[in-house]
Design goal:
globular; alpha/beta; Rossmann fold
């Protein structure tokens, strides 16, 4: 067993996950539609610009990548649905993380958001939590619009005032907002917990997907993880150092979130249950899948 596998096994046991999680189960049919999203802003989800920025695969690989993310999203939804009775109420909050920049974290986050939003009974809020380098916000042209940090900074500001409804049914976006020197303190504040609690109180079936900063580059990701019910760690196959993965898993274990792994840019045939639950095989070319 490699160092990476040992670290992931340790994280799995520490988060209370069962070994049966290594296979993909069908989503329960009892899930009910989420209540309609409310927002005061509108946004066109520009697929062409996202593709040009490396956040979406080229057309010739779109179906293959969509199929791979379909496998991943079913597990996330299953865990979210299983956690509806969780007293913490945070199973619907999913953070997409990486150890280092350029592991494919933002690419994975955007594609997961699109996949989740395609479900008939699910609505998704995609939050750009990479507050120092808000790649999603810049690409979608909302870098100057009020966002997460503004919401945390001003207790009088409402969630609806920073939420952008998109032209894609079931998907809304919250930008990073205006950066300030106390941005890290805002992320660590109880205000983030209360904002997430308010979202959960509206509808526990709504999924919140947060793109985070690289875990080893800033403490912000570790603070965010403590508010999440699930963390998806993106590891770039053959590039991300094993020690970086070990250190990241250890840091993320400070919270109680279930930790899962996506292996990005795998160059050999890898089964979907590789590294306990998630993985996708060859098909990630050098021009995409490496967004921060």
């Amino acid at each position: 067993m490699s160092l990476v596998e040992k670290a992931l096994e340790k994280a799995k046991l520490g988060s209370g996950q069962d070994r049966r999680d290594s296979h993909v189960e069908a989503l329960p049919t009892s899930i009910q539609p989420a209540t309609p999203l409310r927002s005061e802003l509108r946004l066109e989800f520009d697929r062409e610009r996202l593709k040009a920025e490396g956040m979406l695969p080229p057309d010739e690989d779109r179906q293959q990548i969509a199929d791979q993310f379909r496998v991943i999203k079913r597990r996330l939804l299953k865990q979210s649905t299983d956690g509806l009775s969780d007293s913490r109420g945070n199973s619907q909050f999913i953070m997409v993380a990486s150890a280092l920049p350029s592991d494919g974290k933002t690419f994975s986050c955007v594609n997961l958001a699109l996949g989740l939003a395609s479900e008939r009974d699910v609505e998704v809020i995609l939050i750009d939590g990479d507050i120092a380098k808000p790649h999603i916000s810049r690409t979608l042209g909302i870098q100057d619009a009020p966002g997460l940090l503004d919401l945390l900074r001003d207790p009088q500001r409402t969630i609806d005032s920073v939420l952008h409804a998109t032209d894609l049914p079931g998907l809304a976006v919250m930008g990073a907002g205006k950066w300030s020197e106390n941005a890290s303190e805002l992320i660590a504040s109880e205000r983030l917990r209360s904002v997430l609690a308010e979202i959960a109180s509206r509808d526990k079936r709504r999924v919140v997907l947060m793109d985070s900063p690289p875990t080893l580059a800033t403490p912000d990701a570790r603070m965010m993880a403590q508010r999440m019910g699930q963390v998806v760690l993106v590891v770039r196959s053959g590039v991300t150092p094993q020690q970086a993965v070990l250190d990241t898993v250890e840091a993320l274990k400070e919270g109680s979130a279930k930790i899962s792994v996506i292996m990005n840019q795998v160059t050999t045939s890898v089964p979907f249950n590789y590294l306990y639950g998630y993985g996708y095989g060859a098909g990630y070319g050098s021009s995409y899948g490496k967004a921060p």
